Amino acid sequence: MISFDSFERIASAPLNSWPGTFVVASLAVVFAIGAHWVGARILVRIARPYPLMSVVLRFIDNPALALLIILALGFVVVEAPDTLPFAAALRDLLTVLLIVALTWLAVRSVGAVAEALVQAHPLDNQDNLQARRIHTQARVLARSVMVVIVIIGFGGALMTFPAVRQVGASLLASAGVAGLVAGIAARPVLGNLIAGLQIALSQPIRLDDVVVIQGEWGRVEEITGTYVSIRIWDQRRLIVPLQWFIENPFANWTRNSSQIIGTVFFYVDYRMPVAPLREELDRILQNAPEWDKRVQVLQVTDATEKSMQIRVLVSSFDSGLNFDLRCRVREGLLNFVQSAYPQFLPRARADLSPEGEHVDFAAPLERGVADGANATNRVIRPPASSRTANTEADPVASRGERYGPDASAHSAATTAPNAPAGTAAKPAERR
Asked: What is the mean pLDDT of residues 170-189?
């Protein structure tokens, strides 16, 4: 009868040479692959009703297979005698590979949990504020945890070598200087890592947020462990470090809601009646699918020496729809004025009367009623009080408002999507 010692001696006999070790290692690898195949089929069948578990199993499938194969090879090499050539070096290599496989498995597990949360909260809903919040937290926190796992795994792999351990002991002896140097060298990395954690927790930005950064309008396309990718309206990409969002102010148009109010400016003559414009605006908005029926305002917001400024406020569910709505309103009102009141479009006026005299071509209402038709031929001199109104002491004159709005500023304001008055931005794309 074969004893246990005899069985162990017979089993370890093939490991005394490399050909025998190779055969035993091949059998161990085949056994590991078979065990992985059977275990994967069983776990997939069990996890089928649970989406979260199914995503995790799909992500860790390859790392788990690699880990089982390394464990099987490690068991064979550990049982091999020390007299076998290169056995010690092979053990060190398998130790490093084991740490790499464990790191890979941990990273994929964190990514699987993040992906499962993302899939459970899709962004294709109209009100996706909660989904965008979860997407941002899952992705940013997952990447931060992955970075920590990789650093720990890399350090563990290096610590398997005796020379590296000696270097580590020397560094600990001078920990103050080493820590200072490492802190200065790793300041950008650590700053972005901490900023990523702050963004994940406080969420000043989220995925798919509409932001304006240094005059550039765009959407948050991606948040990585070091930077944020902003998709600008003209399909460019603005790359911004994570730490910049913590240290600098910026505009977020979808912080609490995607609903937004847009502004349209245009100029008409003083004689243009405002009531027909309001009626036309109501007709345009009733036929506009982009309008969310919240805000509808038409007001005279300024009066220059040449024309009066009309400001229209309209609202939409998001900035892309609001840009289209503003274009629709602007075109509709201009077409209305051109067709119904062309004589009231802005025009330049010139006074050709002799110096010191002023010819009143259009009599005021009260003077026209009192004097009749002869009022239009009368030469009127301005009173002394009106000639001294625009002096240095006049606050309006001192601010320069009597010269009217800047044409370039008006052009920028009327083409900026959903920007407040006086804010320049780029046209928005459709959501």
From this structure: 56
Same domain, yes or no: 4 and 113 = yes
Q: What is the mean pLDDT of residues 223-236?
A: 86
Domain range for 38: 1-120
Asked if the structure places residue 397 within a domain, the reply is no
Which of these, 113, 200, 116, 118, lies nearest to 149 by C-alpha position? Answer: 113
| 97's tokens | 């590979």
pLDDT at 150 over 50: yes
Residues 272 and 252 in one domain: no
Q: How far apart are CA 190 and CA 225, in angstroms?
A: 10
pLDDT, residue 425, reads 41
In the predicted structure, residue 217 carries a pLDDT above the cut 50: yes
Q: State the distance between the two ends of the chain, measured CA to CA, in whole angstroms.
A: 80
End residue of a domain, out of 214, 231, 257: 257
Mean pLDDT of the chain: 73
Q: What confidence tens digit (pLDDT) does each residue in 391-409 have?
A: 333 333 333 333 333 433 3
CA distances in angstroms from 423 to 208, 291, 385, 414, 417, listed in the order given? 22, 22, 38, 10, 10
Distances, alpha carbon 122 to alpha carbons 55, 150, 198, 229, in Å: 15, 29, 23, 20
Contact indicator for 228, 237 with CB cutoff of 8 Å: no
Residues 2 and 116 in one domain: yes
Q: Convert the pLDDT of each residue in 334-361 to its tens digit.
A: 999 999 988 888 877 666 666 656 555 4
Greatest mean pLDDT range, 55-59, 165-169, 191-195, 238-242 = 238-242
Letter string b/e over residues 322-356, b meaning 16 or more CB atoms within 10 A of that residue's CB? bbbbbbbbbebbeebbeeebeeeeeeeeeeeeeee
Q: How far apart are CA 94 and CA 98, in angstroms?
A: 6
Question: Largest Cα–Cα distance in the chain?
Answer: 141
Q: Are 236 and 319 found together in one domain?
A: no
Do 64 and 8 lie in a common domain? yes
Q: Are 229 and 241 in contact (CB under 8 A)?
A: no
* 324 assigned to some structural domain: yes
Q: Specify the number of domains making up the chain.
A: 4
